[in-house]
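User: I'm putting together a small comparison set for a docking exercise, and I want a reference complex before I start. The sequence is below, and the ligand is iron/sulfur cluster. Could you produce the 3D structure with the ligand included, as structure tokens?
Assistant: Of course. I'll restate your input first, then give the structure tokens for the complex.
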Amino acid sequence: MKSTEISVPERVYIETFGCQMNSNDSDRVLSILTSSCNGPGGYVKTGDPFSADLILLNTCSVRDKAEQKVYSLLGRFKPVKIERPSVIIAVLGCVAQQQGLKLLKRIPYLDMVVGTQNLHRIRELLIAVKNGSERVVAVEESLTIGEDEYTVPTKVDGPKAFVPIMRGCDNFCAYCIVPYTRGREVSRAAVDIIAEIKELASRGVKEVTLIGQNVNSYAPPATGGVKLNENFSALLKEVVAVDGVNRVRFVTSHPKDTSEELIALFGTERKIATSLHLPVQSGSNRLLKLMGRGYTVKEYLGKIDLLKEVKPGIALSSDIIVGFPGETDEDFSSTMALIERVRYDNLFSFKYSPRPGTRAALFDSQVDPAVASKRLQILQKRQRQISAEKSEALKGRYLEVLVEGASKGDKNELTGRTACNKVVNFPGSGSGFNVVPGDMIELLITDVYPNSLRGVYNERGLLCS
Ligand code: SF4
């Protein structure tokens, strides 16, 4: 591979699929490509793929038929490559990691395939493509995190930011593709995470969300040969101590790794948001065991009860898979009983579909899709009622809101989010209150809608900025 600097194309278009980890990866890739400190020929971002010189698709394997979707997306860009052969087209992320060379072989006009652990090398890989007219595949896995792997995004978009604290997952739940696409669990050093958060705070970030596939099992590497006795709770305490950061969230948590020490922090650390996403997946012990989740319903509910005790009013959300292989009517009833008991504010529910390469894809006794659809409908209908009841209970209450910016639907309105993770729209300019994105204000909730709340200013107004 030649490593000389070259003159590179100017406009980069990126399309991102999947989870928050992928969005964050895309931001970091764009930061590398648009940063002038990376040498000559920095890119500018464009929203138009047909005028771009570099087209990036950051892919997700979690959804059904992910590979086919990538092929059909790439088909859209084939005419661009025919018309302008100098355009570089790359597939990044989870499908790239899984398919590797297969993608290049199948798509002759594809130039690069870059897996989840090689995204920080994007510029060097581009140089290889340009210099040598090579087609590149970079899907090597590593058990450590390289110094340059997590560049701080050069742009901060509003008062909220996502900070990865680890990558990969060691759990191998029977239905999940993530351990095969993101590799083994590796944590970033706490010192690097805190430095990044301080940098973000200095640029106006007020709310930080720590992200990883399984943040509760955060375990930083040894430094100078010394293994630190640090865990996720210790990291969280360091994060809330950063000046300028007013609110901290984290996602995704695994129930088996959600410790009592961590739950206690919800009661003592004011900056930890009053919400938690704790994916349960099923209310049946038999299915939890088949899924390989590592907890029972009783253990899960014990943690939920403790959370509600230390943080009354905490907003809980979860993921549920309906129609997992072997799910009976009785198993489904257990799941319904669990949602009645917990009363989640929000639920992300899906009908099971097999992911090639996972254990569950080989299970027999797959559930009739029509039965699974019916169960999903029943569950979602009930959850909509529960969510509406929980939102209704907020009417007439004063809630702390982080102002995020102009409302999408009405530019005269502002929008923000409560600590319990609800979107609130409220009067903007002309209201007599002068608030800007990043301010923490108190609003009186006056109306409740299916996906948002409406608030008016409380006489106490601004809480902090
Ligand atoms: S813990 Fe989450 S990311 Fe890891 S295998 Fe299970 S479902 Fe997938």
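The chain is about 35% helix and 20% strand. The pocket of iron/sulfur cluster is lined by residues 169, 171-173, 176, 178-179, 213-214, 254 (CB under 6 Å).
User: Thanks, that's exactly what I needed.
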